[in-house]
Amino acid sequence: MKTKSILIISIALLALSSCSEKFLERYPDGSTLTQSQYAELDNILEADVRGIWSQFYQVSDHDLYGVRSIDLFTDLLSGDVAMTRSGYGWYEVDERGLTRSYRSSYLWSFYYNIIRLCNLGLNAVDAKGRPALKQYPSAANLTSDQEMEVELSYYTAQLLAVRGYCYANLMKLFLDRTVPVSDDQYVVPFYDEEFTSSSQLLGAQRATVGELDIKISDDLRTAIAYLDSIEHLVNRESKMEITGDVARLILAYHKLNYGDNDEAFQYAKQVIDRANANILPHSELFSTGFADIKNTNWLWGKPVSIDNTGGLASFFGQVDIHTYSYAYAGDVKSIDDKLLGEIKANVWDDRLNWFKTAKNYGVVPDGKFYSPGHENTTDAEQIDRDWTSDDVWMRMELAYLVAAEAATKKEIPSVDTAVMYLDAIMSERIVPGEEAAYQTYKNSLNASNIKDALVYNWRVEMWGEGYSLQTLLRLQGDRTLGSNHINRKTKKLLSTDYTLTFAIPTSETRYNPFIGNIYELTEE
């Protein structure tokens, strides 16, 4: 967490050794490159993947720092995160519900910049010859040609998985929910490696929901196949690298949002059955601060060091009162008090202790997100001034939540299966001594109230992790906010409200001739 980066020399000097054991060593914590630097690299693919990871946490402003800033402002928009005090006002626009217009350009450029890097990388793969999918022997028995194939398979999988992840996020965020969703509804343009290598600079027309789902699914399924074929050869150097489990869960969550529940269940169940990670046990529920990449339930995330921290501009800076930044200084982020009341009503649920009343701050996520070693102080000289709490992008609990929800919506639904997967999480969240109360709650779950249990667990378990908005849009339909918001107190949010989805930026509608406010052109 506080270690210096192992990356000492310039990324431009790095090259893979195709005939040594080091061909599998990757350290994806580099920096972005200029076009001239990119063209001069010996190993364009390694540089491209490094650049992609750096984009995931690139700081644009003190409320815009990549993946975790998107998690925070969408959770604020949907109301599960409540801004209860504002001194500097970095997220007040989201607390006011104005995220649609204010954040659209950032989301658009964030995801499409990463997509462009993925396409550049895939073009570099194709220049070398995209590897065939095959099974390989042990590392000790690989030929030099096979070593190169494994390297190309690894980079191809990373690039396809990230591109699929970006399009899945664009689809869920920019899909117009004010009308009934259908496969022929237009969403966002799709740019692949072929488009990027062409001379077409004017843009592309928007893909439909159905078309985009096919593209996302193809990218992720292919990535999974590559990763499965080489997983016995690849030593994962960082949890920023995508594994087969991460790619499966990206696809499972996309399919859940898209409405293909049988596939969502299939891929989530695969992750669970592969058992490469565990649910955070009750013994660690309050001891990690959700701030350590070494947590065994973390599947994907950013290890933060002195070299790559965003400093004041970071998730913990904006949420944790024990980290020297905006939350500490008075921009207080809390849990919606109506949701907090639901947790209190479930006397068995120890997740209540993720949220505590702190002197001079009110209720804060003091038991979930905090800088380990500093949780008992708000003294200016003793709080965290290194900003090295790690960022979680995906954890194992997601697989169980996806599987539980999908089980209730499959072609052959099963409430018992849903309860089984929810129980795997909830049984690790019981207040000691309240086992009987939990058992009563669990035994009460049936077809008439399982949806409520799903909504509750999505909102509570994943609070502050970027899942709240989709839970509202996909499961709830409407949500009434509590009274502790500085804006939108007790406001009723409807899933069909246009403010809960994002508008295509005017820069795109103005300069892309295939997208217009009145009509859209086709390439014909």
Structure description:
- This protein has 524 residues and is mostly helical.
- The protein is built from 19 helices and ten strands.
- The protein has a domain of 228 residues: Alpha Horseshoe (Serine Threonine Protein Phosphatase 5, Tetratricopeptide repeat).
- A two-stranded antiparallel ribbon has the order 1-5.
- Strand 6 and strand 7 form a beta hairpin.
- Helix 2 packs antiparallel against helix 5, helix 6 runs parallel beside helix 9 and helix 17 runs antiparallel to helix 18.
- The longest helix has 31 residues.
- It starts with 34 loop residues before the first helix and ends in a 13-residue tail after the last helix.
- The N terminus and C terminus are likely disordered.
Count helical runs.
19
Structural class: mainly alpha
Mean pLDDT: 90
CATH topology of the domain at 274-501: Serine Threonine Protein Phosphatase 5, Tetratricopeptide repeat
Low-confidence stretches: 1-41, 517-524
Query: What is the CATH first-level class name of the domain at 274-501?
Result: Mainly Alpha
Gross geometry:
globular
In what order do the strands lie side by side in the largest sheet? 1-5
Biggest pleated-sheet summary: 2 strands, antiparallel
Kindly estimate the percentage of residues that lie in beta strands according to DSSP: 5-15%
Topology order in helix (H) and strand (E) letters: HHHEHHHEHEHHHEHHEHEEEHHHHHEEH
The appropriate CATH architecture of the domain at 274-501 is: Alpha Horseshoe
Helix fraction, binned, reads 40-55%
End-to-end C-alpha gap: 53 Å
DSSP summary, beta strand count: 10
